[in-house]
Design a protein that fits this description.
The complex is a heterodimer of chains A (291) and B (596). Chain A has 291 residues and is an alpha/beta fold. Helix content of chain A is 41%, strand content 21%. The chains are: A alpha/beta (291), B mainly alpha (596).
Chain lengths: 291, 596
């Protein structure tokens, strides 16, 4: 809340307020707030199961939050992914979800769908205006493919692309919807250091075109070198929010990622044994191997 | 097939290929039946003695001889795609021999008919089968080459010369296709009591056609022709249309075959419509024939037939348009549940709709369908003062009754093809395919998936309604019985068999599925069994369909016979498992995901 209040409403593009998501008895998100300023990159980190992707799904209308609101430039976003995308929020998926049997170019053209105007009648008769629209869309799609570094692969079937290229294609497809805000769900998962660096440069270039970006990533080094602000999500709640430096040095973040120092754990175990209770302590450090 | 690879040492491949070819040659010249069958002599002189008249070989024996000779030539000549060619020839020879032998043995009362009885010997079939198997084994021992990729510049010619050369090549190719279609239709003649051997002769011919096309495919020729025709699209369309119009002037131009061809056309148009729903949008529709029925009954009621309740008589083009529109409206109605149900559940909803239509028509609810007594006496289409059931004379040739229906249906199929192709290559078509591929991702791209799915149902239903209007005039009767569940299944099979999402696939599938039963008449009760077996075999060995989509071809490419694919598939499975595990870790998102 405090972070959202700090900025004036004018340059805040995307704002989530008190978003709570409950699945049955499981509270996946609890009063999560997030704000994204124009032309900024916000990072979202946290251990597995912290609710990062759930938050993305709430932001893009895939889930309807139990409570709370999501606003784009002050206007409430509808709870329909298609309409959210038309309003200007595009996303990629954690486990790549391209249209595997379509070609690279066709994938991006599907992204152009909402920016094209051809109706069923035009699609049926293929008049001169249809051809013009189609040509423009192809032209724009090729530019985007070049922008993400996938030139000359137009007719390749998406499923045959190497992993890193698939991630870049997904970004190109999302950019084709002409978003104001781009949500990237683990854009560098499974990439080698060179590819990760290329992805970082790509995200900077996307930011430079005026698009604001939210990135989920496990790779903390990547996040800290990329983002203007970072939010740490732990067990459905925002633990810390602030500049990369603040977040990096916060002991609670270290604890969430690496667990408590050994002495403390032992102390608490002894305590638990004494009182006969089982103590659950934070998440494990398994994430760090990704970094 | 992949298990046959490497069965023989490579060194033995060539000798075996020659042995296989020679065996086929010998088989063609051996007698195939030891005695005259009860139903009359088996065609193509099956009881002919060894080398009695080697130059008089006809029919299946001529085909086996051709394959044998081709195999020997292919072994020694520098043939592109050699192993593939030999394999196709082997399978072709095997199919011809096996089908013929099984039938002769069955009709002749056992193995004696194809081996030895009373001092008469007939080992043609068995030798042919062995020859085919040897050829397949020999091909399996050779390294499997890639399918050659021929340049579409014919003889390397450029500019106008190149274009004309391409046109000539296409003309030759299409003329060959026309000839093959004509042969396929007429081979074996009209089945039934008059000629009891139409079925096996036709099946053996399919074996020949399959082997031939397989060999041409292995040499890269079919791929080359299809690329040529893609580059000269307008020219190809015109020539193909001309070929279709030329069919009545060939041997297939009898009343019977024109009727069969027109029926195929109706089902082909319907199958293309279904292809929009199933092939493009990926929505499984098990009650699709109901739209054909709705179109048919609307047209019947507007035809001025005495038996219809409405009894209006409006010009056919208008009636056809109305049939299409009304079927389209019903399509939208059936499509609306698709907003809520997916996959299997959608199939059940459409199945129920098909059944509702069938029962409604059967019980004449609303008195629009005539119930069990149907709506008989529907007059033929009359346009420009000509009734469509009259024979006409064109270019000095007397064309039989029903040929006008054939011409009309050719035009309609062409129009339906154009509709399909245009829709597929548009914003709408891409949206459909995106929904088929990943509905959630499609929604995330801003596609209003609900609207798009209803539109798919509407388009498909409209085309089926149009086909129904012609169907009912051609038949003269509109009966509920033409629109049962089995028809829906057959249409669906036509689409899947031919290749999902492609036009030639749907046409080829419809042709096969509606010609086969016609041709297999004398198998009577067994014909559906044979039919089912044929389907299983095709789906086992060519799961991507006979004419697969450019992309689906790539999808199945690794799984056919290439051997190395197994590791790839396993690797992929492991990767997917890992991804799945990763996703499970992200626990909170699981409940909603599971509902997908």
């Amino acid at each position: 809340m405090s972070a959202a209040a700090r900025h004036s409403a004018a340059d805040t593009v995307l704002e989530a307020n008190g978003v709570t998501m409950i699945f049955g008895g499981l509270t996946a998100l609890n009063e999560v707030s997030l704000s994204l300023d124009e032309g900024r990159i916000v990072g979202l980190i946290g251990p597995n199961g912290a609710g990062k992707t759930t938050l993305f799904n709430c932001l893009t209308g895939l889930y309807t939050p139990t409570r709370g609101s999501v606003r784009l430039r002050g206007r409430e976003l509808p709870h329909d992914p298609a309409k959210v995308t038309s309003s200007g929020v595009a996303r990629t998926f954690q486990n790549i979800r391209l249209f595997p049997n379509m070609t690279v170019l066709e994938n991006v053209l599907v992204g152009r769908h909402i920016r094209m105007k051809q109706g069923p009648i035009a699609s049926l008769f293929h008049g001169p205006r249809f051809h013009r629209g189609e040509r423009d869309a192809r032209q724009r799609s090729r530019e985007l493919l070049e922008f993400v570094g996938l030139s000359n692969l137009d007719d390749e079937v998406a499923r045959n692309l190497p992993y890193g290229d698939q991630r870049r294609l997904e970004i190109a497809r999302a950019l084709a919807t002409e978003p104001d805000v781009l949500l990237l769900d683990e854009p560098t998962a499974g990439m080698n250091p060179q590819e990760t660096e290329a992805a970082r440069q790509l995200i900077f270039r996307i930011r430079d075109t005026g698009i604001s970006v939210v990135v989920i990533e496990h790779d903390t080094k990547f996040i800290f070198s990329l983002c203007d602000t970072v939010s740490v999500l732990v067990q459905g709640e925002v633990l810390v929010e602030g500049s990369p430096e603040t977040v990096r040095d916060d002991p609670r973040v270290i604890e969430a990622y690496l667990g408590k120092p050994r002495e403390e754990v032992e102390a608490s175990l002894t305590e638990a044994a004494a009182t006969g209770q089982v103590v659950e302590h934070g998440a494990n450090g398994g994430e760090e191997k990704d970094a | 097939m992949s298990r046959l690879t490497g069965f023989l040492p490579t060194a033995l491949a060539r000798p075996f290929a020659v042995i296989g070819g020679v065996l086929l040659l010998i088989a063609a010249m051996l007698p195939w039946a030891t005695f005259l069958l009860n139903d009359g002599a088996y065609p193509d002189k099956a009881t002919l003695q060894f080398f009695d008249a080697p130059l008089e070989l006809t029919g299946y024996r001529w085909n086996v001889l051709l394959f044998g000779a081709a195999a020997i030539i292919a072994t020694f000549a520098p043939t592109p795609g050699k192993a593939r060619v030999l394999r196709a020839l082997g399978w072709g020879g095997l199919a011809i021999s096996a089908i013929t032998s099984i039938f002769i043995a069955g009709k002749g009362g056992g193995l004696g008919a194809i081996t030895a009885v009373d001092g008469n010997y007939a080992f043609g079939g068995i030798v042919g089968v062995i020859g085919g198997i040897v050829l397949i084994l020999a091909a399996g021992a050779m390294p499997l080459p890639d399918i050659p990729h021929w340049s579409t510049k014919v003889f390397g010619l450029e500019g106008w010369a190149g274009r004309i050369a391409a046109w000539v090549a296409l003309l030759i190719a299409f003329a060959a296709v026309l000839y093959l279609v004509q042969l396929t239709l007429t081979v074996g003649g009209i089945g039934g009591a008059a000629f009891p051997y139409a079925g096996p002769v036709f099946l053996a011919f399919l074996g020949f056609a399959g082997g031939l096309l397989g060999a041409l495919h292995g040499m890269g020729i079919t791929g080359w022709v299809s690329r040529l025709s893609e580059e000269n699209r307008a020219f190809s369309i015109v020539v193909l249309l001309l070929c279709a119009f030329a069919l009545p002037f060939t041997e297939a131009g009898s009343q019977y075959w024109m009727q069969v061809a027109a029926t195929i056309g109706v089902y082909a148009a319907t199958a293309i419509g279904l292809n929009i729903v199933v092939g493009l949008a990926g929505l499984l529709d098990l009650g699709y024939v109901a739209f054909l029925g709705i179109g048919a009954f609307v047209a019947a009621n507007l035809s001025g037939a005495a038996a219809s309740t409405v009894g209006w008589n409006i010009p056919f083009p208008l009636a056809a348009l109305l049939s299409a529109v009304i079927a389209g409206i019903f399509g939208a109605i059936v499509g609306s549940p698709t907003l809520r149900v997916r996959g299997d559940y959608l199939a059940i909803v459409t199945l129920a709709f098909g059944e509702i239509f069938y029962r409604t028509a059967q019980n004449d609810i609303g008195t629009l369908t005539g119930g069990a007594s149907a709506i008989p006496g529907i007059p033929p289409i009359t346009m420009f003062g000509t009734a469509f059931n009259e024979p006409i004379t064109l270019f000095g040739t007397e064309l039989p009754t029903g040929v006008l229906y054939y011409f009309l249906i050719v035009l309609v199929v062409a129009a339906v093809m154009a509709v399909f192709a245009n829709l597929k290559n548009s914003r709408i078509g891409r949206a459909w395919i995106a929904i088929r591929e990943d509905e959630d991702a499609a929604r995330a791209m801003g596609i209003a998936t609900g609207k798009a799915k209803i539109l798919a149902f509407m388009c498909g239903a409209t085309l089926a309604g149009l086909a129904g209007a012609i169907f009912v005039h051609k038949l003269g009767t509109a009966s509920y019985d033409s629109f049962k569940f089995l028809e829906s299944v057959t249409l669906l099979a036509a689409v899947i068999l031919g290749g999902m999402g492609t036009i030639p696939g749907a046409v080829l599938g419809a042709s096969l599925l509606f010609v086969l039963p016609e041709k297999l008449r004398e198998f009577e009760d067994y014909r559906l069994l044979v039919f089912g077996l044929a389907l299983i075999f095709i789906m086992r060995f060519r799961p991507q369909g006979l004419v697969p989509d450019r992309v689906r071809r790539a999808e199945f490419a690794g799984e056919t016979a290439e051997g190395k694919s197994i590791e790839e598939i396993q690797e992929k499975a492991v990767l997917e498992q890992e991804l799945e595990l990763e996703r499970e870790h992200e626990a909170p998102s699981a409940p909603k995901e599971a509902g997908r």
